[in-house]
Amino acid sequence: MAEMREPTFLILTALADQPRHGYGIIQEVDTLSASRVALLPGTLYTALDRLAAQGLVERDRDEVAEGRLRRYYRLTDNGLKVLDAEAARLRQLATVAEARLRAVRPRTA
């Protein structure tokens, strides 16, 4: 899989611990990103369709709440593997950056 864009990474991360409906994903992405990434519903559902076609997410269940249909999504086993691999890739990059920053920071006595 190609390098993952941040909104995709955050959507998968939002689904890592439990199934969520669309608005729940939007809220969780907002929390995870400290409000830096604000997903619009159209953007989210386009991304969910793409991720489902890639086999990374799937519909979990539908329920009606307050007269509205809520469709829940969850990660597939492959989605968990892909998220784990992307988290490892980002962690490795961060480790390299931190090592280089430590090397150029002035040393304090």
TrEMBL record:
<dbReference type="Pfam" id="PF03551">
    <property type="entry name" value="PadR"/>
</dbReference>
<dbReference type="InterPro" id="IPR052509">
    <property type="entry name" value="Metal_resp_DNA-bind_regulator"/>
</dbReference>
<dbReference type="InterPro" id="IPR005149">
    <property type="entry name" value="Tscrpt_reg_PadR_N"/>
</dbReference>
<dbReference type="InterPro" id="IPR036390">
    <property type="entry name" value="WH_DNA-bd_sf"/>
</dbReference>
<protein>
    <submittedName>
        <fullName>PadR family transcriptional regulator</fullName>
    </submittedName>
</protein>
<dbReference type="InterPro" id="IPR036388">
    <property type="entry name" value="WH-like_DNA-bd_sf"/>
</dbReference>
<feature type="domain" description="Transcription regulator PadR N-terminal">
    <location>
        <begin position="11"/>
        <end position="84"/>
    </location>
</feature>
